[in-house]
Design goal:
DOPA_dioxygen; disordered N terminus; four-stranded antiparallel sheet; DOPA-like_sf; Alpha-Beta Plaits; 2 domains; single chain; mainly beta
């Protein structure tokens, strides 16, 4: 199985917010150690972080003005000849039908699980870590940038499966690099009719 994705997204094309955003004025963590001296003493608080109930931006929470499904998608890839994967121990999750033909950017042999809350994410991802067997699994968030979701903000369990990134529309200030063709493509403009104007240059 080819583990080299056809495109690489240049992280320099994006700005990354500080992980301390919103916490700049809070007191630093205590440097006191636990009794065994192996870790910092972080006692449980009565009020937990909001991240236990809602996904942090830019991940969608499915609000009224949000065009994306909330949370994360998990794509499980299997041999398309074997369609025996018809059960899941977490029946309350949204599970899409098995696809034995190409579906969007995904190769034949894939099914998808939608995780709408942080609790469901924790329950299913911890389960799939243990029970995926030889299958490859892609975990990605749902934001307003599908290309970045599937290429840069991903976690793979098992070997990576090549995705057809040309299915996604490039956003302004984004570039994709095709190492096989030796080219870099950048969005120049979005026309009045919604067409994408691209600029492609060769690289060494």
């Amino acid at each position: 199985m080819d583990t080299i994705p056809p495109y690489n997204l240049d992280p320099a094309q994006y700005r990354f917010p500080s992980p301390l955003k919103g916490w700049e004025n809070h007191a630093p963590l205590s440097e006191a150690k636990t009794q065994d001296g192996k870790s910092f003493d972080s006692p449980e608080k009565i009020t937990l972080s909001d991240a236990y109930e809602h996904f942090v931006p830019p991940i969608s929470n499915g609000g009224r003005h949000d065009c994306q499904l909330p949370g994360f998608d998990v794509h499980v890839y299997f041999n398309p000849v074997d369609t025996s994967l018809n059960a899941c121990p977490v029946p309350e999750l949204r599970i899409y039908p098995l696809h034995t033909n190409p579906q969007g950017p995904h190769a034949p042999g894939m099914f998808e699980v939608a995780l709408f809350t942080p609790h469901r994410f924790g329950a299913f991802v911890s389960w799939i870590f243990v029970h995926r067997g030889p299958l490859s699994v892609l975990v990605h968030p749902n934001t307003d940038d599908e290309l970045r979701d599937h290429l840069h903000m991903t976690a793979w369990l098992g070997p990576e499966v090549p995705l057809d990134m040309q299915r996604f529309r490039l956003r302004p200030v984004c570039e994709t690099m095709d190492r096989r063709a030796g080219t870099v493509t950048k969005i120049v403009d979005i026309g009045d009719a919604g067409q994408t104007v691209k600029e492609t240059r060769n690289i060494k």
